[in-house]
Amino acid sequence: VFPSLAQAQASVANEAYQELGQPSIFLFCPTEYCSSLCSPSPSQSCYLLTLGQELLPGIGVIWTGPKVVSQELSATLLEEVEGVLRRQPVIWDNLYANDYDCRRVFLGPYTGRAPGLMSRLCGLLLNPNCELQANFIPIHTLGSWFQSELGSCAHPDHTGMEITAALGDSQGSQEGTYSPREGTYSPQEALELALLDWVAEINQQASEPGR
């Protein structure tokens, strides 16, 4: 029925999106969801070019970066992806995913993501370790990175300013709170803060009756 896989997928996605009333968040994961799966490159992929043309503008497209598990994400790469998809991507970040090797657990801080990256994204999803408690540091440091990014983004409206102000009001008075300024995210500082909070959380749980 369809001349290509991309046109078939776009048609089904568009119909589902419209049938659901065009929800504000509707995510599409393409078959080529990272640079290493594109032939010969994201900007020259006939598959991605077709998706960019055919998918309705309100549909978000998921992207994992240069590889399935990307150690680094750069603004240059995201510009290329945005150009071919005709929309900012939603990053599906597999930095901590360990479902492909359950002998490993990733406990380090959120890192390898260029400063100012958030302004080039439609959203970011973190794929965690399979072990729930092992994700305290990943999620905590992601929060520090996100707070730093809010401080460095220049929004044309006041949304970002309101979020930043709210974070400051709720956390600024707490001792030891990470208060990033523009371009000041430090994975090591974020890790140290996360460890302090994690130890406090463990001690609190240990002191509860029956724990």
Describe this entry's structure for a reader.
By secondary structure, the protein is of the alpha/beta class. The protein has one domain: TIM Barrel. It is 41% helix and 7% strand. It is built from six helices and four strands, in the order αβαβαββααα. It has a four-stranded parallel sheet with strand order 1-2-3-4, with no helix packed on it. α2 links the parallel β1 and β2. The radius of gyration is 20 Å and the shape is elongated. About 12% of the residues have low confidence.
What low-confidence regions span 5 or more consecutive residues with pLDDT below 50? 154-178
- Secondary structure tally, helices: 6
CATH class: Alpha Beta
Order of strands in the sheet with the most strands? 1-2-3-4
Q: Name the CATH superfamily assignment.
A: Glycosidases
Largest sheet composition: 4 strands, parallel
The overall pLDDT, averaged over residues, is: 87
Query: What is the number of E strands?
Result: 4
Percent of sequence in beta strands: 5-15%
